[in-house]
Predict the 3D structure of the following.
Amino acid sequence: MSPPVDEVLLRSVVPGVLGVLVRRGADFAAAEDAVQDALVEAVRAWPADPPRDPQAWLVTVAWRRFLDATRSEAARRRREEVVHEEPGPVSSADDTLQLYFLCAHPSLTPSSAVALTLRAVGGLTTRQIAAAYLVPEATMAQRISRAKRTVSGVRFDSAGDVATVLRVLYLVFNEGYSGDVDLAAEAIRLTRQLAAVVDHPEVAGLLALMLLHHARRAARVADDGSLVPLAQQDRGRWDTALIAEGVEVLQAALARDRLGEFQAQAAIAALHADARTAEETDWVQIVEWYDELLRLTDSPVVRLNRAVAVGEADGARAGLAALASVDASVPRRTAVQAYLHEKDGDLPTAARLYAEAAAKAPNAAERDHLTRQAARLNSG
Amino acid sequence: MAKYLMLKHYRSTSKSLDCAPMDQWTPEEVSAHIQYMRDFGAKLTETGEFVDAQGVAQEGTWVRYDGEGRPPVTDGPFAETKDLIAGWMVIDVDSYERAVELAGELSAAPGPGGEPIREWLELRPVMSEPPTVRE
């Protein structure tokens, strides 16, 4: 039996293939359709007849599909002449980078940018993306085609914004796991690919952040699906190779002395990863990084997390004092307040706040966790 | 991106806005109302925001465990049928504000005389997966 096609390898060449087609003059939407057709063809043909150069094979097939789909004979002849002038695919890092910029274009809504990135840069099928986001395939197909229409007028050589691309990849990484595609792993793959073509410390910062969080994934959820808080995680289940890589990527980025929010977040994650037990966590240094992060972002969520760290470094009362400056509408504020009151020994208040936080929880795993906390204190 | 459940109830909570039951509308008014719902769903598919929409029958059965070997209880004084849910729609939108906007639009479905029925819709966030990062 022939070996199955390596889907990850296949998808990793997609941005390059798409970039070549667009640079040759295909419009983005048509090129993207042609590449999808070529991918389907590859899955069918490669097991029996593996190509020597997968990218060249895909460029050839996708270009042929694109030409077939283009009605005008005159246009076809013109384009074929162009191909003859430019034989073989040229792997161009710039094309790949432009594709990332295009898919994260500011004219797109966040959900459209995510969908387009996964499809055009990630090479996922519409069905896979729809399954990952738990929406019907028809809905996702429309989301993608609208996104393609939105960026169809955008010049492929216009400069893009790395920060926008990173925000999209961050959104992909943060999405939970559903369907047959692991979005966290996909986000890491795409960020690695981006890091290979762009020289920017925040790309490394985001990659380090993802690696460090991904390393803890096996320990975050118990066998019954319930959440395990950081302090109670079995640190033996953390992926030490991923942690080592994350720390290395982070240190190289920090050495360049161009701090950004992803590097600061990764530094906090690295300090957690560095502690052999929860008690050994260097909370004082973590508070310093939160101060840094606050200077960079002034985000209420960061202020909230800083209050947790202050509570660990300087005691529950100090944590509650820090919490006072966090707006009541910030998600999870009540849960943090409950935790700090429990730490301070005020169990009735903590139980009431845990129950209140459970009612506001945005997902079932957190709701169940907070309900158990309230029940534990109420029955104790 | 967040999913919201829009629950359609059988009645409006404000008496002044209550319109006649659908069986007392003209057939054209009924058709116009149903067409509005269909168009709304189709429009949301086109914008990439549609997840699901279903109507549920007015008839329902109440079931409760009452001990091993005992039949479930299926009658009793429960909420009136018109209080119950008529149907639902699930949308996947970029913001809460957009969800409110769409719920308002759905509430404007035409009733007698082509006037918006202004029914109350209950908008509730659907539980998501826990995020991986929250620093």
